[in-house]
Amino acid sequence: MATGTGAGPAEQPRADGDGPGPVRLPGLAAAVTALADGQVTARELTERALRGIEATQPTLNAFRRVRAEAALAEADAADAALSRGERRPLLGVPLAVKDDTDVCGEPTAFGCRGDFPRKTADAEVVRRLRAAGAVVVGKTNSPELGQWPFTEGPAFGDTRNPWNRDHTPGGSSGGAAAAVAAGLVPAALGSDGAGSVRIPAAWTHLVGVKPQRGRISTWPDPESFNGITVIGPLARTVEDAALLLDAASGNHPGDLHRPPPVEARAAVTRDPGRLRIALSTRWAFTATPKRLDPRVEAAVRALAERLAALGHEVEEADPAYGPIGLTFVPRATAGVRAWAGRAPDAALLDPRTRGTARTGRLLGGPVLRAARAAEGPLRRHVGRVFHRYDVVLAPTTATPPPRVGELARLSGWQTDRRMIAHCPYAWPWNVLGWPGVNVPAAVTGDLRLPVGAQLLGPGDSEPLLLSLAAQLEADQRWYERWPPTV
User: Fold this and answer.
1) Which end of the chain is more exposed for a tag (fewer CB within 10 A), N or C?
2) CATH number of 28-480
3) Which of the residues 98, 191, 249, 461 is marked catalytic?
4) For the whole model, what pTM was predicted?
């Protein structure tokens, strides 16, 4: 039986380095329980979070905006509500959101330079977090318009991996991943347009959930990046990720995608049953060179062996991806073009962004409409794998995380080739709009660099994926490992 493990890492963390480092916050479920039981106050937790953020900005640089004064006021309001006996899913817990998400009173610069206006309203997902009682401590770093699997740029500098600061935490939700992995916040929201939650989760030893398209509202945008981008949680445990997913889920009347609701946290304590799992190491065609690093392959195959030992039927089989890459590029580049139009000064944008925006203009209109029309046939084509299997297990990335700066100063064409070489596995599920969950697979070698594996399912399969992830977590106990002192 899969069991919830949210309290475990808060009680007995094991670091892979020396020294006490900043005080790590408890996990999300453990923090909710401690607050409700009066073991800690929201102000105490928020002050700890703010101290940790301040202490690690020079080393990790996870945050673009820190809302110290506002967060403390929100924490005091949460303490008053707790003292009145109120109970809400996240009441008093400090959380972070990515800098592509509107927070009232803060600019949404999405990794760009320039003087962006302060927002006058929360995004729908932030409104839901506040309704659940969360304290929003800040906005985390993202590369420019979330385009790359590294979190670096002239607007904010380099965000670094708490496991090894010479390496990137990934992207584009790299700031969120670094903050959660270092214990600065119990959990955070990122966004995933080509793996941007799952990739940094893999490279920082976290659980990262890409939900079904529309599960979490993207309002004030009816959809994000022509439907390929969704918002999802990053956390240290499956229970924490599910708790945040439940709290953040739901729709605004203006959303284009409104899937039926699911109960994520309830799935964590359910036995997934005996599943048929396809182990896949094949990637979709991109006409660019790629190689699966033997360390990643060994880690994913070791997880497959553990799943078989847990009673599941595991076979090697690959989805038939077909021409899915031809449908991704128009949607992604047209999305970059639309978002780049919000920048106050186009001259401040990265030359690669301007090039991608030009491509988006060329591929908009009829080409974009054709790409979107191909989604239904592609779902049927790729979905044939689920006639035989319940879940696909695949690498999340092809390599461990690269070094900081390795991709940041390349040309647009060079960046695309290197990006695909590192991360060829995640993006097809964004085209399909289906859920996927990264789980930690290993911390490799002397460099202590994490790698991950994806559990991929068909539409609305978050409960199944989370149930299986929780069963694997109970076996692997990955939450017991912490990065070195940061």
Assistant:
1) N
2) 3.90.1300.10
3) 98
4) 0.95
